[in-house]
Amino acid sequence: MAHNQPIRSGPHGPGASPSEIPDKLYFRIGEVARLCEVPAYVLRFWESEFPQLKPNKGGTGQRLYRRRDVEMALRVKTLLKDEGYTIPGARQVLKAEFKQKEPQLSLLQSAPSGASVKQLRGLRRELEAIAALLSQPVTNSARPKKTRDPQPQAAHPIRPRRASTPPAHIDAPEIPFDPAE
Prior knowledge:
This protein has helices at residues 29-36, 40-49, 67-82, 87-100, 103-109, 114-135, and strands at residues 9-10, 13-14, 27-28, 56-57, 63-65. The protein is mainly alpha-helical.
């Protein structure tokens, strides 16, 4: 097959659609260039212009595109070639599309009532309290001092550890919890 002929023809003209991308884990830049019907240098330029298009680089420095990278390259091509966007305009469209797909927004939009938001806020406060407790330094006064045992370690009988309550000398602060919120 000649290099200047399209490898696929979709319903809207030449070029690969996301459903026509081969089922592979990684693609080399030449394969992606053929699927997008653009030279490899154009893909490298798009990588510098669109932060959403960032293929991995292998140990040899060769670009390895995943399926989502190929789909992004096809989307960039559609915006620039078919829809007539400038590079800054296409960058804004992709940025807006990315914001619409953020999972946190969908979580808050799908909350059925104000009670769910209250529960989430209460949970957040609890997690912040736990994080604050965990970030506090451990003081030496809470730990018992180790004393050197005059007998060798092997002379002591081996006893299995028992699950028990924490020692009384360690004061654990209360974690605020309000189940009504």
